[in-house]
Amino acid sequence: MAAVQINDIRPGAPMRWLKAGAGDMARAPMVSIGYGLIFVAIGAALSLGLWFVGAAAWIPVALSSFALIAPLFAVGIYQISKHIDEGKAVTFSDVWLVSGEKISQVAFLGLLLIILLLGWARIAQFLYAYFASQDYTTLSEFTSWLLGNPAGLAMAVIGTVIGGMLALAAFAISAISFPMLIDKQIDAATALIASVTAVRRNLFPMLTWAWLIAFWTVIGTAFFGVGLAIVFPWLGHASWRAYQDFCTDCGPSSAG
């Protein structure tokens, strides 16, 4: 396992990544937005399932958990950007074509994110059991208790702090690792270390980038989730451009 060379970036780089990501999406709008719609549908199905079983109060936790592993789901978006860079026509089937040796490395990093997701779900369950005096099955009841009761506010604050720490860990692990695995002949451990190193050495711009990702994700979710069909691929393409800024000499490129 050899270390890779990570470039330092300028503080204003995240805005440039967003602009470049929008350019990628404009070059393959049908494929990019179609890919985003698939995951909007998955999130909607998850929310509806919780609603129908009388657990609507868990929808916010489920959606935030879903966001933790979004970088794994964005692998197809990285494939689109890679094809654009190579000057290839992009078709919907291209987003699923990950070679066998890469799948195992992607799956390893994906497993780490899933462990964080399960940890967050377990912590949320514990906090709810500790602070709530009764079951709040509807989203309106839960929201009223969360914002209008001291115990609910305490749970919200503690949950936000813990969730933020887990989200930061997931961000550090995945900031450039998944695009790197798609682009280079490299192992998961090397990609993970490179990603954490990139975040650690460029903390201010990367925290800005994390904030922008969170902000636009909230905006997309606010529009009943439909906005995520645009926001999700846009941020995925932008993450590919972020990776390219960091990694100009990270080992041999894959054949695609």
Automatic annotation (TrEMBL):
Pfam families, sorted: DUF2189 (PF09955)
Record key words, sorted: Membrane, Transmembrane, Transmembrane helix
Sequence intervals crossing the membrane: 33-52, 58-78, 106-131, 151-176, 209-235
InterPro entries (alphabetical): DUF2189
Domain of life, source organism: Bacteria
Protein's UniProt name: DUF2189 domain-containing protein
Organism: Hyphobacterium lacteum
